[in-house]
């Protein structure tokens, strides 16, 4: 992948896609191609084929997906399964048909079994039952990985897959009904501070443990893998450390500067008890995450405040 390579970032409006575009432009990429939802519906295989036929990208990052937090997954299982499968079939298939040099598919750490040994290694894939709260999404992502591996096996396509842990950063979804925990907590503590609420409610028991990777680190890892990795085996991308949701809540409370109390709502689901990736493979390949969690939350909170001001002024 060179400066003038034609690089298609599918899903460039999302958290991951926008970070990838920022990362590529920062290193001087001159030919980054993007299409928004109105210009190209990525679930429409015919439209995607026509796009690949006319544009002929050389490198493809598949950052497009229907994503959401624990509640959104449980509420819209059919949408999560159907849309993700449709995007994968359309994009990965077209990439093969139109001779893409290399493609990187983004999965998720929820592809691993609910009770996989921790930290989770790449070989734990398909060794046990999935976490029910995100099973449709996980099944779709596993299908995407298998599709990439199958094209490699049958046709020699250079398609690789990266499995990021829980992500956060600028451009995240802060809608409390559909977001993941980290942006939700930023928003909850921020608004509670503004309103001078006596307490903030965190879902579940606070005991589940999760690992959080800043999306700019993920984008850096994806570009690194695009340049330095060519195997069908998936690669975990994480920081190799996790925190309890209660610790995360405390950290976000401090960063936001909220003085009130934290309470827990046991009626909301905890989801999988622990999700920590083994990042040994990635470290051996020569890449490590750089952003410490507190610094990442500070940066994301700054972005959130900026974005709220823009919204209020609009
Ligand atoms: P998961 O990693 O797929 O389970 O997705 P989430 O990021 O949505 O949730 C992670 C954990 O954070 C779960 O145990 C949630 O119950 C917990 N959590 C605590 N407060 C919140 C909240 O306000 N929003 C979300 N989405 N999760 C929360």
TrEMBL record:
Keywords: Isomerase, Multifunctional enzyme, NADP, Oxidoreductase. GO terms for biological process: 'de novo' GDP-L-fucose biosynthetic process. The record marks 108, 110 as: Important for catalytic activity. Pathway: Nucleotide-sugar biosynthesis; GDP-L-fucose biosynthesis via de novo pathway; GDP-L-fucose from GDP-alpha-D-mannose: step 2/2. NADP(+) binds at residues 11-17, 106-109, 141, 164-167, 180. InterPro entries: Epimerase_deHydtase (IPR001509), GDP_fucose/colitose_synth (IPR028614), NAD(P)-bd_dom_sf (IPR036291). The keyword Oxidoreductase applies. The active site is at 137 (proton donor/acceptor). Belongs to the NAD(P)-dependent epimerase/dehydratase family. Fucose synthase subfamily. Catalyzes the two-step NADP-dependent conversion of GDP-4-dehydro-6-deoxy-D-mannose to GDP-fucose, involving an epimerase and a reductase reaction. This is GDP-L-fucose synthase. It comes from Rubrobacter tropicus. The gene is fcl.
């Amino acid at each position: 992948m060179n400066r003038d390579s034609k690089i298609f970032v599918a899903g460039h409006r999302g958290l991951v896609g926008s970070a990838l575009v920022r990362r590529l432009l920062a290193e001087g990429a001159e030919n980054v191609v993007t299409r928004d939802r109105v210009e190209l519906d990525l679930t429409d295989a015919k439209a995607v084929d026509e796009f690949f036929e006319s544009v002929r990208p050389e490198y493809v990052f598949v950052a497009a997906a229907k994503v959401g937090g624990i509640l959104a997954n449980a509420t819209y299982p059919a949408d999560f399964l159907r849309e993700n499968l449709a995007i994968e079939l359309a994009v990965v298939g077209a990439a093969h048909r139109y001779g893409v040099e290399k493609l990187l598919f983004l999965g998720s750490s929820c592809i691993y079994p609910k009770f996989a040994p921790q930290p989770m290694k790449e070989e734990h894939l398909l060794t046990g039952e999935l976490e029910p709260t995100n099973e449709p999404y996980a099944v779709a992502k596993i299908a995407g990985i298998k599709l990439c591996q199958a094209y490699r096996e049958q046709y020699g396509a250079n398609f690789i897959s990266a499995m990021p842990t829980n992500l956060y950063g600028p451009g995240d979804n802060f809608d409390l009904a559909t977001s993941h925990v980290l942006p939700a907590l930023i928003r909850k503590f921020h608004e509670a501070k503004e309103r001078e609420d006596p307490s903030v409610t965190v879902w579940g028991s606070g005991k589940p443990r999760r690992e959080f990777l800043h999306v700019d680190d993920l984008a850096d890892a994806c570009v690194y893998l695009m340049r330095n990795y060519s195997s069908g085996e998936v690669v975990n991308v994480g920081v190799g450390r996790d925190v309890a949701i209660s610790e995360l809540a405390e950290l976000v409370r401090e960063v936001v500067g909220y003085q009130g109390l934290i309470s827990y709502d046991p009626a909301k689901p905890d989801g999988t008890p622990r999700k920590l990736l083994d990042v040994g493979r990635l470290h051996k390949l020569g890449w490590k995450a750089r952003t410490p969690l507190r610094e990442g939350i500070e940066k994301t909170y700054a972005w959130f405040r900026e974005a709220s001001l823009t919204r209020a002024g609009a």
